Amino acid sequence: MEAMSYTPSGAELKLEDETFLSDDFLRQLINVGEVDILIGLPTHNNAKTIGSVVTTIRSGILRGFPRERAVIINADGGSRDGTPDLVTGVSIDDARPAANLYALRTLHSISTKYDGSAGSGAALRTILAAAELLRAKACLVMSPEAAHLQPDWISNLVHPIYRDGFDLVAPTYRRHKFDGLLTTNLLYPMLRALYGVRIREAYMPEFGFSGRLGSQFLGQNGWHDGNGQAGVELRMTLAAITGGYRICQSFLGEKEHVERRGSDLIPALRQTVGVLFSALETDFLVWSKVAGSKPVPTTGSEQELQLDPIRVNRKRLREMFSTGVSELQSVFQSILSPSTLTELQRIARLGEEEFHYSAELWVRTVYEFAASYQKSVISRDHIIQALAPLFRGRVFTFLVENRNASAIEVENNVEGLCLEFERLKPYLLQMWKSRE
Amino acid sequence: MREMIVSELSQAMHEMARGFAHYVPRLIVMLILAFVGWAIAYVVKVILRSILQFIKFDKLSENAGASQLLNKAALPTATEMVSRFVFWVTWLGFILLGVSVLGILGLQEQIASFFLFLPRLFVAMFILFFGLLAASFFSRAALLAAVNANVPSPRVLSLAIRSIIIVFVLSIVFEELGLAEQTMLVAFGIAFGALMLGLAIAFGIGGRDLAQRFLEEKFVRNKKEENEDELSPL
Question: Which pTM value belongs to this model?
Fold first, then answer.
């Protein structure tokens, strides 16, 4: 409560924000005063990469915005490897020699520990609250694992907000054609078909946003219910779309290949598909009126694909699909229509050569899952988990279809899938209304 | 002598008439209670049915696996079953109240014990319903986790979890009802032990190849797959 009297420049400090930020953190924010640019760094045991990330961010600020008041806010989830010390310990001189740059303003670095489990939305909430208190005009959130981060990423994300008045800058990357298959096969086409906005990376590891979007999202998102914490980056994209904010994309560069295991799929589904499905319920009045889709302004390339061959165990993907279809029959009976289930059972029996999970069948599957999620035919989390084996089947077909495909052919295949999602949107609406 | 017989007869008649006069109003009260009870029970049934339909109790019961059991036994829906049950319990309660008004010796105690038993019956039903719901939820969770982790025979695992929970719930239900507590305790121990032993035998001997494959997949294949790229979903 003491902090209220020290609030800088009359910033509207909400009681709710005040209580979850520590006194020490508030005191440091007050010392900083107002800023033009805020860079948020959510971390949790990222000592291996965070030093170079902070140095690159500082270089980016010095190079692109030497006259602006900037601050780096590190929201840490309780690291035990000294990550917060590495963030605050990087001096401005670390960035200067390499780039031959000179700062005209002090670049502050503040680290705070947020309450809540690591990786939850609590980190972003802390960053948003700090941005509101400091009245930041442009804010960025950077991934602490971004090993390929370049100084010009900062300019690419800040300029559209600071100079062109955009509210949300989503990134686009150069990445392997088989990376981000959940994004390519579900998130991008479904979000595009339903909301009518062609955002490639709606679940963004790095992104920029305006102070007004940040403030609005801070007040709007249900931070206290369990759902409001997962996939918060995607929630922010959806809030920007439904709130009518100006959105653009900015090409950043190569996205590093993050090593993942098969078990990562379920959390990824929860954070993306789960969030999207639950948002459909609240945003029904918005997406039900949208027809077709429009591209968003993009700086640089919309998508660049790397084509070098990689080894993938396709056989295992198909096996897990077939096992899933046969073992989860009782679960699928509650979720899918009889015709879709019969078709899935038919293709599950096919050999590797004949197996083909068509775009139309995949779209029907996803839409039926979305409608079942809305009706909570079984536990919603179980519905999301049940999608995993079917997604593996779709991935198998995508890998086979695009095994020798050029970048343009891959793009055409993704575009075909997107159009299928748009074409079958009335099917989802029909199910949605009939189930109401 | 004759006068004595007449006197005794008239006295007996008189007592019978007095007993009848004493009994008829109670009988009327009992009939009124039974009628009022029926009306109240009917209203309760209609209201309860509406509430259950509103909260989609049939869907909940389907999730719990109770609907499937009812279907197999050619019984009505869960909503109808609960509504009817409450109707009969309510009406029976009023009838027994009426019977107690009759003042029949020996019945009073039985009626009192019936009313004392009712809360336990409701608690037992509550435990049974939510126990079935939990069994269904956890068995489905295990099934999904096993399928997504590529564990062999996921349905066996799911069925085992379901059976364990149901056996456990039934033992609690019988204990709550106070029916054959000792027998149920022993039966539970035997059933639970048999289930565990069966699973151990099935997995260790019957499913030796399966166990071998599982262990190979767990420890050997991981090494093999280190040389293969994992696809990043996001």
Answer: 0.80
Are A327 and B231 an interchain contact pair (Cβ–Cβ within 8 Å)?
Answer: no
Q: In whole angstroms, what is the distance from residue A153 CA to residue A65 CA?
A: 12
Q: Which CATH architecture has domain A2-306?
A: Alpha-Beta Complex (3.90)
Q: What residues make up the domain containing B169?
A: 118-221
C-alpha torsion sign, points A371, A373, A378, A381: positive
CB contact (8 A) between residue B144 and residue A203: no
Q: What is the pLDDT of residues A184-222, one digit of tens each?
A: 999 999 999 999 999 999 888 899 999 999 999 988 877
DSSP string, A161-208: HHTT--SEEEEEEEEETTSSHHIIIIIHHHHHHHH-EE-S-SS-SSEE
Question: What's the rounded Cα separation, in Å, for the pair A238 and A202?
Answer: 8
> How deeply is A105 buried, as exposed, middle or buried, from its count of CB atoms within 10 A (0-12, 13-18, 19+)?
middle
- Parallel/antiparallel/unpaired status of strands A168-176 and A207-210: antiparallel
CB A34 within 8 A of CB A135: yes
Asked if residue B85 and residue B160 are part of one domain, the reply reads: no
ipTM of the complex: 0.82
Is the distance from CB of A179 to CB of A85 less than 8 angstroms?
Answer: no
Residues B149 and B94 in one domain: no
Q: State whether residue B8 sits within 8 Å of chain A by CB.
A: no
